[in-house]
Amino acid sequence: MTIATAESRELRPIYLLFEQLGCRGLDYDSTPPIKLIRSIREHLEEGGVLFLLGDFFRPSFPTATFFGRPTHSPNGAVVLALEKRVPIVPFYGYREKGFKHRLVFHPPLFLYKEVRPDQRRKATDKLNGVLEEMICQVPGQWFYWFNLDERWDKTEICSI
């Protein structure tokens, strides 16, 4: 199952491609939150896998740290990991040449073994640290950087 902002012009083509491949999807912006949560829980209880973008940004997301700076990060994966004891398998992809791509999977993270359920910020920061490491492996291929000017306070960007 893919959870995405399907109306985003940047993500819409990817969302439609997953849909064409038979991957059920939910639009983060148009699906009512209760339906979204129920669908995710049912999917996981059936042994399903979710694909969530960890670098997505919205000003309304909870505060976290990303590349050493305060920002707002999604914490849906953290909530599922801590409350439902769901393992997280970090991975990233990059283009090697032409139409040849490689996916790199990391060992599963069992955050519920390391972090208490009331420590969502700590768990989100831990996931952001893993994301930072993956981005640094192939920084030129991190395509989801279209909102850099919104992610950090302007004074923070100037001090980089």
Terminal residue distance: 37 Å
What gross morphology would you assign? globular
* Major sheet strand order: 1-2
Largest sheet: 2 strands, parallel
| CA radius of gyration | 16 Å
The average pLDDT value, as a whole number, equals 82
Q: Report the structural category.
A: alpha+beta
A few lines on this structure:
This protein is α+β, with helices and mostly antiparallel strands.
Task: Note the main attributes of this structure.
two-stranded antiparallel sheet; two-stranded parallel ribbon; alpha+beta
General description of the model:
This protein is α+β, with helices and mostly antiparallel strands and 160 residues long. It contains seven helices and six strands; from the N terminus they run E-H-E-H-E-E-H-E-E-H-H-H-H. The strands form three sheets. It has a two-stranded parallel ribbon. Strands 3-4 form a two-stranded antiparallel ribbon. Strand 3 (63-66) and strand 4 (69-72) form a beta hairpin. Residues 155-160 have low confidence and may be disordered.
Strand-helix topology:
Elements (H helix, E strand, L loop, with lengths): L1 E3 L7 H9 L4 E3 L5 H13 L17 E4 L2 E4 L3 H8 L7 E7 L2 E6 L5 H4 L5 H18 L10 H4 L2 H5 L2
Parallel strand pairs: 1-2
Antiparallel strand pairs: 3-4, 5-6
Helix pairs in contact: 3-5
